[in-house]
Amino acid sequence: MAYGPATHKERKLMKLNIPNVLTLLRFVITIAIVVLLSLPLTIEDIPTTGFNPIDLVCCLLFIIGAVSDALDGNIARKKNLVSDFGKFADPLADKALVNCSLIVLCATKGEYVSFILVVMMIFRDLAVDGLRFIASSSGEVIAANIYGKLKTVVQMIVIPILFLEGFPFNYLFKENTYILTNILLGIAVIFSWISGFIYLYRGRKYLGCKKNGN
User: Fold this and answer.
1) CA angle at residue 105 from 102 to 110, to 5 degrees?
2) How far is CA 53 from the centre of its chain?
3) Phi then psi for 112, rounded to 5 degrees?
4) Nearest to 96 by CA among 30, 157, 172
């Protein structure tokens, strides 16, 4: 039995598969985190913790977003649901979640987050994403490396701690908790830049000027 082209409704359902819904969820979570932490509210801390309920909600939202990042790629590959939308939106959602969280944390909890470290991570991401875009337009994929994955792991550990203002390490380090959080961010920056240099080396042919042969 022959089947004709997919209808508009069928194409829409294909686009709204589980991995793509999880990707869209990360965009929603990112917006929610930025809005919640930007609200001009004065809320008392939860007793003996050092953080308030909004901090806790943002932390939980970020963790949900991080878990969805781990799930959507695996589901897409196992269920053969890889789509062009997913290839484009998934890394964008990842960067939005992490970088927007770091920016808003830097603005609201600057004592725990070094502005310079945040800028260094975002600058690296912009450079690498630009290079990957150029390479992909030529039909080449620059593979991820272990240092990029280590960077992500450290970020996923330190950002929830930042949302909770250093909890639970604030019990041990007290007013010096910012040293620990910035050391962890510094480790993420080191992995980030090592990974970035590897990307640049592997894609170095896209950084030079092509000779026209005239």
Assistant:
1) 115
2) 23
3) -105, -10
4) 30
Distance CA 18, CA 180 (A): 37
Q: What's the token pair of residue 97?
A: 């979640």
pLDDT by residue (tens digit) across 135-157?
Answer: 888 778 788 889 999 999 999 99
Taking the C-alpha atoms of residue 118 and residue 102, their distance in angstroms, rounded to an integer, is: 7
Q: Would the pLDDT of 211 be above 70?
A: no
Classify 103 as helix, strand or coil: helix
**From CA 186, how far away is CA 198, in angstroms rounded?**
18
The model's pTM is 0.82
Instruction: Give residue-wise pLDDT tens across range 169-181.
Output: 888 888 889 999 9
- For 143-165, b/e burial (b = at least 16 CB within 10 A) is eebebbebbbebbbebbbbbbbb
Closest CA to 63 of 149, 180, 157, 154: 157
